[in-house]
Amino acid sequence: MLLKDLFRKQRKYATIPSPEAKKEIPEGIMQKCPRCGTIMITKELEKNLKVCKSCGYHYSMTAPERIRSIVDEGRFFEYDEDMVSEDPLGFPEYKKKIKADMDKSGLKEAVITGEGTIGGYPTVIGVMDSRFRMGSMGSVVGEKIARAAGRAVDKQYPFILFSASGGARMQEGVLSLMQMAKTSAALEKMHRNGLLFVSVLTNPTTGGVSASFSSLGDINLAEPGALIGFAGRRVIEQTVRQKLPDDFQTAEFLLKHGQLDRVVPRHELRDTLIKILEFHAYGRETQ
Ligand SMILES: [Zn+2]
């Protein structure tokens, strides 16, 4: 061996795990961060509100996890829990897919609505769950959100909605698009009653959901790194024939361009919401 070989800088290669190596991580016990590759024990990750300890990546939360992380003592009273989707267009396989998602997620639809207290403030809460038909908005999702807004009006409560959605539900065609108008009208009624609506956009919030209720908050918050947009990047690039910036359609990009009020790390979210509720309650008392 030549002396210079001894001093040659060793190239650092990133190890790309083989498909076999990936399988060695027992499913369910450990989770590998999709951004930095750090492996965390699932229980530890859950204790950390599903945020990667190394890079701060925010994993998706299920609707029940989200509710537990936000309401006081995890106490929550659910609305319309038995409302389930029909198959109005007779779309092939739709009923089967709904059933499969129910079994997989333990949910009846892609949104849970109800009420609880947050920092002592009674609040109507809606949480979407991307495990159910990608959190897509069909008639039931729209109806549950519109009813939740209606309950907020009846009870004079604020409404906080966490969205996570791929957009409108294609299996319900135009009926799913109509939910954009229905939910927007229900929120307008809240507005006319001087009630607070806070939208929290989580990863991902796209399509008809981003183009309706999730952008209509009196205050619009988002989680770090969340993908938020209407059409997909490729579709836009092909349409405008321009390369889009790398951070396009991220929460941070939207904040920079005035479409969000704040990007709030998950660990600060509950306290931030309590502060917002507090300001608002004070405003109402002094009216
Ligand atoms: Zn990470």
UniProtKB/TrEMBL annotation:
<keyword id="KW-0547">Nucleotide-binding</keyword>
<feature type="domain" description="CoA carboxyltransferase N-terminal">
    <location>
        <begin position="29"/>
        <end position="287"/>
    </location>
</feature>
<keyword id="KW-0863">Zinc-finger</keyword>
<dbReference type="InterPro" id="IPR029045">
    <property type="entry name" value="ClpP/crotonase-like_dom_sf"/>
</dbReference>
<keyword id="KW-0443">Lipid metabolism</keyword>
<comment type="similarity">
    <text>Belongs to the AccD/PCCB family.</text>
</comment>
<keyword id="KW-0479">Metal-binding</keyword>
<dbReference type="GO" id="GO:0008270">
    <property type="term" value="F:zinc ion binding"/>
</dbReference>
<dbReference type="GO" id="GO:0003989">
    <property type="term" value="F:acetyl-CoA carboxylase activity"/>
</dbReference>
<dbReference type="GO" id="GO:0009317">
    <property type="term" value="C:acetyl-CoA carboxylase complex"/>
</dbReference>
<feature type="zinc finger region" description="C4-type">
    <location>
        <begin position="33"/>
        <end position="55"/>
    </location>
</feature>
<feature type="binding site">
    <location>
        <position position="55"/>
    </location>
    <ligand>
        <name>Zn(2+)</name>
    </ligand>
</feature>
<feature type="binding site">
    <location>
        <position position="33"/>
    </location>
    <ligand>
        <name>Zn(2+)</name>
    </ligand>
</feature>
<keyword id="KW-0963">Cytoplasm</keyword>
<dbReference type="InterPro" id="IPR000438">
    <property type="entry name" value="Acetyl_CoA_COase_Trfase_b_su"/>
</dbReference>
<dbReference type="Pfam" id="PF17848">
    <property type="entry name" value="Zn_ribbon_ACC"/>
</dbReference>
<comment type="pathway">
    <text>Lipid metabolism; malonyl-CoA biosynthesis; malonyl-CoA from acetyl-CoA: step 1/1.</text>
</comment>
<dbReference type="GO" id="GO:0005524">
    <property type="term" value="F:ATP binding"/>
</dbReference>
<dbReference type="GO" id="GO:0016743">
    <property type="term" value="F:carboxyl- or carbamoyltransferase activity"/>
</dbReference>
<feature type="binding site">
    <location>
        <position position="52"/>
    </location>
    <ligand>
        <name>Zn(2+)</name>
    </ligand>
</feature>
<keyword id="KW-0862">Zinc</keyword>
<keyword id="KW-0275">Fatty acid biosynthesis</keyword>
<dbReference type="Pfam" id="PF01039">
    <property type="entry name" value="Carboxyl_trans"/>
</dbReference>
<keyword id="KW-0067">ATP-binding</keyword>
<dbReference type="InterPro" id="IPR041010">
    <property type="entry name" value="Znf-ACC"/>
</dbReference>
<protein>
    <recommendedName>
        <fullName>Acetyl-coenzyme A carboxylase carboxyl transferase subunit beta</fullName>
        <ecNumber>2.1.3.15</ecNumber>
    </recommendedName>
</protein>
<keyword id="KW-0276">Fatty acid metabolism</keyword>
<dbReference type="InterPro" id="IPR034733">
    <property type="entry name" value="AcCoA_carboxyl_beta"/>
</dbReference>
<keyword id="KW-0808">Transferase</keyword>
<dbReference type="GO" id="GO:0006633">
    <property type="term" value="P:fatty acid biosynthetic process"/>
</dbReference>
<keyword id="KW-0444">Lipid biosynthesis</keyword>
<comment type="function">
    <text>Component of the acetyl coenzyme A carboxylase (ACC) complex. Biotin carboxylase (BC) catalyzes the carboxylation of biotin on its carrier protein (BCCP) and then the CO(2) group is transferred by the transcarboxylase to acetyl-CoA to form malonyl-CoA.</text>
</comment>
<feature type="binding site">
    <location>
        <position position="36"/>
    </location>
    <ligand>
        <name>Zn(2+)</name>
    </ligand>
</feature>
<dbReference type="InterPro" id="IPR011762">
    <property type="entry name" value="COA_CT_N"/>
</dbReference>
<comment type="subunit">
    <text>Acetyl-CoA carboxylase is a heterohexamer composed of biotin carboxyl carrier protein (AccB), biotin carboxylase (AccC) and two subunits each of ACCase subunit alpha (AccA) and ACCase subunit beta (AccD).</text>
</comment>
<dbReference type="GO" id="GO:2001295">
    <property type="term" value="P:malonyl-CoA biosynthetic process"/>
</dbReference>
